[in-house]
Amino acid sequence: MSDVDTRAIPAARTLPKAPLANRLLSTRAGGKMVADYWENLFTARERGAKVVWYNGAAINPILQNAGVEWCHGEAFGARLAAMHLEGPAQQASESYGYINELCSYARTTLGCALLTKQEAAGKVEMDGAPGIPDKAVLASRLPPPDLFVNAYAGCSTGQQWDEVTYRMFNRKLPFFKISYPLLFGNDADAGYLRGEEWHNASRYVAGQIHQLIAFLEHETGNPFDWEGLRESMHYIKKAAQLRVEALDLCRSTPAPAVFWDWVASIAPINFLPGNQDLVDYFAGVKAEIEQRLADGVAALPNEHYRLAFDGIMNWNKVGWLANKFAEHDAAVVCGRYTHNSFWHEPHLIDEDDPILGMAQHYLLCPFNHSARNLAEQVLRDCESYGIDGIVFHATRTCRSATNGQMILAQMAQRRGIQTMYLEGDVADESFYKDELLLSRLEAMLETIDVQRNRAA
């Protein structure tokens, strides 16, 4: 028997596993910018500012230069989910009568509207529901709206979302709605950024943006700052160009940055103010990627597969997914949501007369196209990024995001690109199963290996 008293030896501590995904450090600056934006919004009422709640397209440059503060509903829903704080808002909306099959973005922010009303009224309980738990504090911090703007393309739920919120606030607030035609792409000359349908739709939406500006002038009593809009769009165009250039750098093998890095960079380009800070952020992202290329640093040290991700991100699982794909040496290098949205065609923006270019970007919502137009973009990216397989995220409560995925998968398979389906959701983790993703991912990667062996 040993004469050592083992009771005095502390038990070995299991250290947390280090992340495998070599994420960009520059994106942390974006996280601080986003946090500062929301903290500023939470105090809007105390500063006497008017507040607009809106959903859909990036109309924030319009709101910025109308002199109002803005709350983007989807963005706040995504933020809560990424912080794992979406539960209280979703529970509030479900107790109000909205089933869990409703778009989880909408369900989350409808719950926020309910909690915001309670907070404003000094109440801590809903009818027939328990008191608001502590972690609901963030969900109830939105300032009550003074007016609503709906700017949703490609989704019928999104087009009704603000109407429902409007009713929650007793139909007493001004409400403006922009209508975006779906780009069917059926005409002989139709296609991505071309054809009579494209040009007619662009002019139609541009006309509505002018009407929105008149509406905001009437509601605020202040003239619209056209020079300020030109300046904002100057910064947004410059930031967007830097972003696109950085995306293009990731065509290199191995990739210096991956889809999960671009997910972390959505918020700044989607709804933050157009200013020099935005430009500096994307300049920093591009500079880090360039330095990685110069130093031979990869996002995955052992990149073996190159994948695309189709569908909206599951915000509850960003870090987990990044590491899980990295464990399988699978670099997700592009995606429809990150690469074909958010001011991704900066050449369309005319800084002197920006309205038409803004309207065109709003039409380019990745869920506002026919399968024909989608295939033109997705398959182009697959070719240019050297994609082996596509992960289709079939979002349970967002059918507009899943429309066309079966057709896209068939077209990809005919080109020798493997595909898999993952059922999940954008902001409701209960629809997601880790085991299902892993089994299907491993099956697809094995098929890619077999395909490579045959080719060899």
UniProtKB/TrEMBL annotation:
It comes from the Bacteria. Pfam families: HGD-D. InterPro entries: FldB/FldC_alpha/beta. Belongs to the FldB/FldC dehydratase alpha/beta subunit family. This is 2-hydroxyacyl-CoA dehydratase. It comes from Paracoccus lichenicola.
